[in-house]
Write a structure and sequence with these properties.
Layout lengths: L3 H25 L59 E28 L8 H7 L10 E32 L5 E11 L2 E11 L9 E3 L4 E11 H6 L3 H9 L3
Parallel strand pairs: 1-5
Antiparallel strand pairs: 1-2, 2-3, 3-4, 4-6
Length: about 250
């Protein structure tokens, strides 16, 4: 069993070994174009996971005599807009927000209290002997306070986001509204861009092209961001973030 110093050394060396394997692979590709991935059965891959999504109940196919179309088929005159669990629609996200806020607060408060003791059950004369500086009944207590506060705040924000994402109907509410959920991931080199959206929509707000605006989504939750090497460089290190939280000044 390795000793404690050996364990620490192995733990420190493990990331170096991993980076070394990656470096060896990159060195072996010098002078050669990047190799293409082989075509393979995606179901047979080790990282394959089957997709499980909400689906509508199976409806029996009703066939009618002397009819060219089957009930439930996507015919020319059938409404193609999302209406059932598992249907897909497009969400058009166009956000152009601008906000300018200037706040200035000034608060000043002053207070003073004076009290005298002309009689204290006959002990006013005794207090003069007990107190080191003597006792003056007309000036028994005097309290004063001053408070001043000045605050200034300014916000100047401008945001523009224009995206489109496909979402799936995940739930039908009793009043006919639908809950939609959508996500999108795009990886370029070592940077992953992610977009997620969820909310509640009305079927009548869906356009003829099966599209809905983000402003028509109630309880909308839209997140657009990413992770990767570039995102890591734009964020402070974990130690600095922890220091900013716990440092009192």
């Amino acid at each position: 069993m390795p000793t404690r110093p050996a364990t620490i050394a192995l733990a420190a060396l493990f990331p170096v070994l991993l980076s070394g394997c990656n470096a060896l692979d990159r060195v072996s590709d010098i002078g050669s174009p990047p190799s293409l991935s082989h075509i393979e059965n995606p179901v047979a891959r080790a990282d394959y996971r089957p997709v499980s999504l909400p689906m509508p109940r199976a409806e029996p196919a009703a066939r009618q005599a002397n009819s060219l179309w089957r009930a439930g088929a996507r015919a020319f005159f059938k409404d193609q807009r999302a209406s059932r669990i598992g249907d897909i629609l497009t969400v058009d996200i166009t956000i152009e927000d601008e906000a300018t806020i200037d706040n200035e607060t000034t608060r000043t408060r002053a207070g003073s209290e004076d009290a005298d003791v002309t009689a204290l059950l006959g002990f006013e004369g005794t207090l003069a002997k007990v107190l080191p500086q003597g006792f003056t009944p007309s000036n028994a207590a005097s309290v004063g306070s001053n408070s001043t506060h000045t605050g200034t705040g300014s916000v100047n924000r401008s945001e523009t986001i224009k995206l489109k994402v496909a979402a799936i109907v995940s739930q039908l509410l009793p009043n006919g509204n639908m809950v939609i959920t959508g996500s999108q991931e795009v990886r370029v080199n070592f940077e992953m861009r992610m977009l997620t959206i969820t909310g509640v929509i009305r079927p009548e707000d869906i356009s003829a092209t099966n599209t809905i605006m983000h402003s028509q989504i109630a309880e909308a939750r839209i997140a657009y961001g990413g992770r990767g090497q570039i995102t890591d460089m734009q964020q402070p290190r974990y130690g600095q973030q922890l220091f900013d939280i716990i440092f009192p000044l």
